[in-house]
C-alpha cells in the first residue's frame, strides 16, 4: 500500500505507541534498534490499523523468553491441548488452532502474544505466500465459500520471538527434525538460518473478516 510509505500520512492515524516504533527517536540506542523481524512486524501493525482491523498494541521488550524451561513448558501445554491432532488437521485448521492456544500460552508465559499472519521464506522460497495486494482485495470483496487462503499463522511475543504451531505440519520436509518431533517452534526469527518470518497482518481481524477463522472445538 503506497500510503504506508509516507510517514507524514501515518503520523495522525497511528497511536503514539506505534508511532514511536515506526518513527524511531534520534537518540534511540542500538540495544533497542529494530531488527529485521521487528521492522516487518511494525509495518504489519500499521497496515492492520489503516485497514480498521484493530490489532493489539504491543510494546517491544529487549528480552528473550525462549529459555529451556519456557520452551519445555510451552511444548507440554501444546502436547496436552492439541497433541492428539493429526498433521492434516493442524495444517488445515492452523488459524483456529493458533487463535485458540494463544490465551493458554499467555497464561503460561505471563506475557501478551500477538496473533500474526504472513508468509515464511525458506531457503529463498516463499511459502504460504499471497502478495499483499491480493490479500487487500480479499478484504474488499471477500472470498468464495470454502476457498483456501495461502497464508500462515503464528504467535509473536513482545521480544519478537515467535511460536509457530503448524509449520511442521504444513511443510514437514522443510522443517527441522526437532521441530517435527516437538510439533512446534519457539525462537527469535532473526536468529534462524535459512528461514525468515514475514508478517503481513497483526491480530485475527483479517481471517475473521474474510471468514476463514474456524473456532477450535477440539477436533
UniProtKB/TrEMBL annotation:
It comes from the Bacteria. This is Uncharacterized protein. It comes from Lysobacter gummosus. The lineage of its organism: Bacteria, Pseudomonadati, Pseudomonadota, Gammaproteobacteria, Lysobacterales.
Amino acid at each position: 500500500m503506497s500510503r504506508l510509505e509516507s510517514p507524514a500520512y501515518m503520523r495522525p492515524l497511528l497511536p503514539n505507541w506505534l508511532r514511536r516504533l515506526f518513527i524511531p527517536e534520534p537518540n534511540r540506542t542500538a540495544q533497542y534498534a529494530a531488527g529485521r523481524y521487528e521492522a516487518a512486524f511494525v509495518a504489519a501493525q500499521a497496515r492492520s490499523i489503516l485497514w480498521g482491523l484493530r490489532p493489539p498494541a504491543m510494546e517491544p521488550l529487549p528480552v528473550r523468553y525462549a529459555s529451556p524451561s519456557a520452551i519445555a513448558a510451552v511444548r507440554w501445554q501444546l502436547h496436552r491441548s492439541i497433541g492428539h491432532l493429526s498433521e492434516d488437521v493442524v495444517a488445515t485448521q492452523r488459524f483456529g488452532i493458533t487463535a485458540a492456544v494463544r490465551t493458554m500460552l499467555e497464561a503460561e508465559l505471563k506475557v501478551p502474544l500477538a496473533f500474526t499472519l504472513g508468509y515464511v521464506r525458506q531457503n529463498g522460497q516463499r511459502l504460504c505466500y499471497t502478495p499483499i495486494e491480493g490479500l487487500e482485495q480479499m478484504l474488499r470483496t471477500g472470498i468464495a465459500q470454502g476457498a483456501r487462503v495461502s497464508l500462515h499463522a503464528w504467535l509473536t511475543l513482545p521480544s519478537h520471538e515467535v511460536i509457530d504451531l503448524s509449520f511442521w505440519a504444513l511443510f514437514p520436509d522443510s522443517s527441522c527434525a526437532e521441530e517435527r518431533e516437538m510439533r512446534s517452534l519457539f525462537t527469535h526469527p532473526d536468529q534462524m538460518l535459512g528461514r525468515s518470518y514475514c508478517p503481513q497482518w497483526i491480530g485475527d481481524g483479517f481471517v475473521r473478516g474474510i471468514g476463514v477463522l474456524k473456532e477450535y472445538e477440539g477436533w
